[in-house]
């Protein structure tokens, strides 16, 4: 980091004060993680904007526990205080601490300076990758989806709507419930038609998910497809950074939806140019085994992208070019090709509904 950038961040950057850190704790922010000890007091010079802070306990045997964390939009010059709770092995936020003591910490933040590490901006590509991965996530979206102060939980929810919230973790050989405090937008790809639809409409909108996508855009995302893509980004980061399977399930829902909208592709190609950009940035962050074993399980990515390609009008050169660049990226990055034939069978669970007239 050059001196000019360092001086600017010192004056404008945010601080995260982390108190009472236990020994041998993995602590991270965005793409940077360290094993810390009791002298560590937090991170300074954090660029204003969205960040993901996470930690996991490492046992005496060197076994790393489950990663827990929270999203937060840091304001310029903000000082945010968290304190380790040894009873729960979790962080207390400011609302659980003595407010007078919290205020003293903030006023005297320079007293902790020597024990706070600077946010790593060298190499700068790490922060640039983080911005690209999270560019559409807004503070309002984080508050809506993660109402518990941005916390990403692994505790099962008390809700029992299993048709919507259950996701199969085949690596563990069991189902995983929706995690507590995770409020992703619920939608059912098998009910992608309006209430009271005729048999012909049920067939049409079961094959083409454009009605469902438009309904979500209008009623949830205020006709802003960037907000919709922001939730897809948030879901993916919850999976990638926190191994959260509610995020995995929601990400798959969005990919399936965006790849199944023939009518919307023709009318709003700009949405799908942005979708491909978001998807490629996400896949670029995946280790090869993660891409093949998790994201491509049961040929999911293959079937979805094949579906999307079939919906792109040959006359839309810009969108065709964007899709071709995605194909080239997949071939180069994973030595993986999108199939051209119709030989693959569709997943029965999400197969379209055909209504005989």
From TrEMBL:
Gene3D superfamilies: 2.60.34.20, Aar2, C-terminal domain-like
Annotated InterPro entries: AAR2, AAR2_C, AAR2_C_sf, Aar2_N, AAR2_N_sf
Annotated GO biological process: spliceosomal tri-snRNP complex assembly
Superkingdom: Eukaryota
AAR2 C-terminal domain: residues covered: 184-338
One Pfam family of this chain: AAR2
Domain AAR2 N-terminal: 12-147
Record family assignment: Belongs to the AAR2 family.
The protein, known as: Protein AAR2 homolog
